[in-house]
Amino acid sequence: MFKELDPILHSQLRLAVMSLLISVKEADFTFIREKTNSTAGNLSVQVQKLKDVGYIDVAKQFKDNYPQTTCKITPEGIAAFESYVKALQEYLKV
Amino acid sequence: MTEQESLQLIADMIKKAKGSYHDSGINSLLWGSVVAIASLVSFLQRQYDFSIGFDIWIIVTAAIIPQIVMSIREKKASKVKQYDNDLLDAAWLVFAISIFGLTFYQSIVPAVTEKLINAEGWSMMKHYIDGSKPDEVILPFTPSLYSVYILIYAFPTLVTGIVKKFKPMVIGAIITYALFILSCFTESKYDMLLGAIAALVCWFIPGIILRKKYLAQHRINV
Q1: Which of B1, B9, B76 sits opposite A19 (nearest CB)?
Q2: Which residues of B155-171 are buried (b: 16+ CB within 10 A; e: fewer)?
């Protein structure tokens, strides 16, 4: 019996965000937007969803009078990502 | 999105995140040039017996100011923080403290030793074996101390080279370890020359390579 894939992660943009954040300590919203080739509006919505389930931490602050949003993966996010990858491997028998 | 596409997306994003770090090379060029110039001038002064009228190592101290300014700017401009940044910052901090400690040792210990041995009622003398010149009282000193500086130059360079998988720095550090061994057998003025070569291979040459890569990447992004 295959394990069900986490619906939060099984979405293109959210998975892209999580894959980026698993590789770095923290990243700016603009960095994530550039790397995922997404729009600010769509990315904002998906980041909020990841934050709501506790997979990422989002910190908002001001840098040189401009708002800056920094995202960081949480331990829960790492665990969810790892089990998602494991489930994928089971499906694909990697 | 199929499972295969998911896996491909994860691999692509991890690759993008890892490829996002680009050292501008400026720090390496700055330190490589100042340490190489200071070492080379020190060697030339001793080799050709002249003085430029001030301590050339002041330029190394002066380089700390642009270094601080550049570090603040780079930190502000940085959009992503990698896990290994903290490790490398720690390695270079320990390096800076070690260099400062060694400089402190070099300037304090001879005077303190002289005081202590004088208190014991003896002093250090330079004695000519062939008796061609009379004995001279000398200040205690650590022979060939610059060899230790060369040894320390290799440490953060090797750490950075290994962590960032940047071969020019690994090669530079290995050459520097060889220069250290060589410097143990040479007169102290030649240690300065070897130190200049160490600064070039550890920082200046890798700095040029990093700068070229950075500018090439910048052109792609523009």
Answers
A1: B9
A2: bbbbbbbebbebebbbb
| C-alpha to C-alpha distance for A8 and A15, rounded to whole angstroms | 8
pLDDT of residue B222: 53
ipTM confidence: 0.88
The answer to the question of residue B165 being in a domain is yes
Helices within B120-204 (DSSP H only)? 146-163, 167-183, 188-199
**Range(s) of the domain holding residue B164:** 25-76+85-221
CB–CB contact B14 A22 (8 Å) = yes
Number of domains in chain B: 1
pLDDT tens for each residue of B191-214 = 999 999 999 999 999 999 999 998
| Cα radius of gyration rounded to whole Å, chain A | 14
Nearest to B81 among A16, A25, A30 (CB): A25
